[in-house]
Structure formats: C-alpha cells, structure tokens
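Section 5.1 Outputs to date
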Amino acid sequence: MTLKLSVVALVNKKEWHVERNGSATSRLAGVARLVTVFAVLLQMLSLPAVRARAHGDAQCDSPVRGEAHVPVLLAALGGGTYACGDGACPDCHKIEDPGESATWTSAAGTFINKVVIKSGAGGATGAEFTFTTNGSDGCYSVSGIGTRTATAARMAEDSPSCQAISHVRFYYDCRSPCAEVTEWSAWVDTSPWIWDAGEQDYAKTQERYKYDRYNETHVCETDHRTIWQDYKPCTVDTEVVRTGGSSWVHKDGQLCRSAHFRQVDGQTGEVCTEFDREECIPYQGCSSTAPGSEIGRTGPTYEGGRECWEVQYARIDSFTGSVCGSEKVTECTQIENGCNSASFSRSDVRQGQPVTMRFSAWGTGVTGIEVYLLSDARDGQRPSGVGGGAWYLMASAGPEGGSVTIDSGWLFPKKRLVLVRAFYRGVYSDCHSEFRVSEGPTRTYPVAGLEPCPSCVKDPVYQTSRAGQWDICKAREDGTQEVRLTDHPAADKAPHWHPSGQYITFQSDRDANWEVYTMDANGASQLNVSQNPAADVAPFWSCRYIYFQTNRDGNWEIYRMSPDGTQQMRMTNSPAADAEPSSSCYERVAFQSNRDGNWEIYSMNSDGTDVRRLTNTPWDEAMPEWSPNGEWIVFQTDKNGQREIAVMDKDGANLRYIVRSAAPDQAAAWYPYCDWIYFQTFRAGSWDIYRTNQDGTVTQRVTSRASSAEMLDDGNY
C-alpha cells in the first residue's frame, strides 16, 4: 500500500524547483528517473489500482465527475518519448454531465482518435454516438479528432429536440505525428503565371504534400516545383490602346471619329501592330447640348439680401446646332439696403416723461421696419400693445419708417437699448442705439398697486466641493472675494437667497436625512426649519414663503412653509413627481412635473390652485426660475440632446434659447439677481458658475477652479 501511494503521489504531484545556476534541468531529470524506477516496480507488482486510475476500465468510468483526468505517461530514462498503458481498452478520459459541450486535451505525444457521446442527461436512458472523424450527425458535433484537443457539443440551437449529453468519453493513443503518412497529393498551384523578365518566360510554382495518415490536416512532407512556359511575344498578353484620332463629328445620324490604335505586348512592351479605323456610335439628336441665347426671364424675387431672376436660355445641340429646347437658370445680384439707428426726442429721460423714437431705413428693396426695446427683469407691467419677449416690440411701419412715443414710467431706470430692424426681400439688417432712463420721483412697480420685494442681490451664492464635501459659499458677482458660509462634514447644497439679500435657505443631510435650513447672509444662525424624517430638498425663498419638494407622502410633492418652518402646507397632489419649485414675489409658483410622461414646466397659485402647463414637448424641460418682475421664466431644456438655457414668457409664449454650447448648461438662477442669469456649466472641463444677460448676448465666467466643482444646484438628493 505504501508503494502504491508513493507512485501516485510522484505521478500526480507537480512540484518544480527553480534554483540559481540552472539546476532546474537536473532536478527534472532526477524526477523522471525516479518515476521510471517506480513504474517498473509497479509493473512487477501488478498493481491494478494504479492502472485503473491511468486508463479506466472498459467503459472509461473511473474519473471523478467533472474532473480533468490526465493519464499516466511514463517518461523513459533520459528521453522525451512516451509509452501508453496496455489495458484491455484504449486509453480514454470521461467527463460526466458536461452541459452543452465538453472539451479535453490529452497529454503531449498523444492524439485523440475517437469520441463517444452518451445522450440522456439526468439519469434518462439514451444512446451512444461514436465519432472517429470530425463532423456532426444533426444532434451532436465533434471537432479536434486527430489532435490533442477535441470538443463534443450538442447542437441545441439547430436541433432543440435532441437529448442533452450524459457524458463524453475521449479515446486517445500514443501514435506520433507522421509515423504513418499518406501518398503524395496532387500538385497544387501556389502562384499564378508570373512573367519572369530575366528568363523572358512565364512561370508558376506548385506544391504537393504527404499528410499524417490519422490526421489529414497535418502536413508531414512538402515537395516544390516550378513550371516554365515558353513565351512568344505578341501571342499571349497584348493590349490594344488608342493613341490618337479626331474629334466626334455628326455623320448620317451617327457620331464618328478617326482613331489610331496600337497593339502592345503586355510584358515586353514591344509594339505588335498599329492601325487606323473609323469609330461611329449611334446619336440621338439633342443628346448633347450647350446653353444658347436668352429667350426670356421672370421675377424678381428676393432672398438673402439678393434680387433673383429666373432666366430662360435656349439649349443648342452640340453637334448639329439645332435648338433642342430651353432651360431655366436662377441669376441673383446683391441688393444694397439697410436700417438707420433710431433717434430720440431726448437722450436722457426721467421716469414718467414721454420719449419719442424715430426709425427709418434706406435702399429700394426695404419692405418694412420694426423697432424694439431691450427688456429688463425689473420693468413694470408693459402697456397694452407692447409685445413681450426679451425684446419689446414697440412699433412697426412700412419702408417709409415712422415714430412711436411711449411713457417711460414703467421702465426701470438704466441705459436702455433700442433696435431698428429693416426687412428687405427675405433678410433684414439691425441697427442699435441707446437712451437713458433716470429715476423719477415715484417708484416704478412691476405690477400696479403691488409693492415688490426689496432690491436685487448682487452676490451669487452656490455649492462647492473644494473642502472634500459640499459646502455653501458666496462671492462677488465677478467671482472674487469668496466667503465660505458652511463648514460641516455633511453635504450642504442648493442655496438660494431671500430677495432682501439678508438670509439664505439651503438643503443639508447633517441630521441623517435631507432637511431645509436657513442662515444669515454671513453664515450665522444655521437652523433646521423643515424638521421632518422624510427628504425635504430644493428650497426656494420667495417674499413670504419657503417652497420646497418632499417625499413625505410617498412621492415628490411641492410644499410651502413660513420662514420659521411653521404653517407647512401641501400644494400639489399627483401620483407623478412634482419638483424644483420657484416663486415670483407675486406668489405664482413654477415647478417641473412628469405627470404627463416627461418633465415639463407648470405654474400654479401659491395655494396650489389654477395649475397650468407651460411647455409641451417630447423632450425634458426642468428647473424653472422666475424673473424678478414675474414676467418671464428661465429653465433648462435638452431639446437638442444637450442641456441648454431658455427663457419664455410667464404664460409659456415667446420661448427663446439664450445659452447653448457643446457642454451641458443647466440650473439657471435669475431671481433675485435681476441684471444677470447665473447658471452652471461643464464647458471648461469642470463644473463652474457662469452668467449671461437676459437675451444671451453676453456670457461671462464667474468661478474658475479646475480642482473642484462649483454649482448652483446639482439636483442630486
């Protein structure tokens, strides 16, 4: 028993010692000699247990299920040949329950010569399928016979009705490659006929092969030869080329020309023959035409500042000179037209005083003129007849121009920009001019009879990741003199000013869940005002209330509360998500909702009544914010596959895109910044704060830190 265990251990144990000075070879040789000695002893003692482990019984059943069994191959002393066992059946290996396929590799010096597949997995009775060559029988396929590695597989996709595989037996022997070979194969071309310039003949190469008798994919011997073919110039490889001739002329209903040809040997370049001949092809009259003289024109039309005519030309046959018809060509010339800048009855107007704007254009093609005034977020309620949007349409007239007189009492006191636009046949030109509105004795209110919130805030407030967690900072409007307002290991995000600029609201998870907090403008008196175990996020501070979104009712809804956290009131009640509230000082609330399938912008009264849908598109619109005067809403949209900033009137009309770039631009904040719309963007490779004026014509970078992110609201909670 001791002797058996030792031999098996020596055969199966793979222990290699790599030592300095190349001693691995001597150790391997010693191991090989030791294995041979023990093999001889085993044969003398006739130990059947070891032989059964090496070869298996007649059914090849000895290997453990799923185990890759390696047969015992005894290395001869000092040599690299192998000897197979001499059991009652050939050496083999069995794999139980292989699934859809089984692959096995035999030892070096052996070749798999037969594969037997037993069907009926899971104990079912099945048949045996024997393969001695590679191929398939419709249910099973075998490859690799004649090599060391073979694969047996069930063709499940092609024949799903075939039974699963119970086990696979791989049979192998120790026949060396090319010990027995086939006869020479037929000669096979290994190249096409190739011209040999040195021999002045064509030649091609051929090969034939002897294969292993038991593996006809294995080449044992290769024989080569070259076949020559005597070549006579101008008999095999010639080329006829046209080397000259006359132009095509019309002759008896055909196009004919005289052509000179040369036949040249394709290999030697020798001229074999030369000849002339007439070439003629059928010709249908007017198949080839050229433009003739003008026979008429219509127009003009105007497009892109150009005057265009449709000119009709005759088409003339290129060979016969006959008229074949006509064609129309559009011919355009640039026209000279333009606008004149507006002039004013006074350049400095005090609030409440009237001002007259005169506008005109020049050129013969002008069809109409319009005059616009650039709006301001602090303007009062515009008079009847004044169009909305980023530019107020003040008046329009024909090509003769005109004038318009307005009362300046509703205009916010500042320098005001006026645009005159002259239209001429599909295009227009713009001219700009300015006048100043000075503060009058009576304050201008955005809506008559309603006192607005306190004056605008200049300093942006935002969240930053600079300290390793989200904190709240504020800075000057150009990004300088930054002040850190919170310093807590938790996340403080989504800050928003009170319109007075004295207080800030934000969200924080410092109490183990998201809550709404308030603090003074200098970061003092940080208070949890929402006080609820649910998530309360996205706070927005209007003049009277703090609006926020919460999931305390099982989904995102809009709530409002007093600044001290009392009088919490639910404003929306929808099974969908209502989020990102924003309010004007006139208590109209904008928010985003997916109640109609995708994110759209809605508005409602401050008590949740009168809900109106403002956008209706197949893409998402989100994160709305009011302008300070309650006339417009800025929001983000992904209409073009990238988040951009857009502005619309409070009723959803006059939508216009003001910020577009290759990077995402999002989370715009307008109120209470007044002159500027702040937003966050990734256009410089990191999240930073930018700002733009309300029509998007001026964009400025506010923060610039590549090592951290500065954002108004990342929207993550």
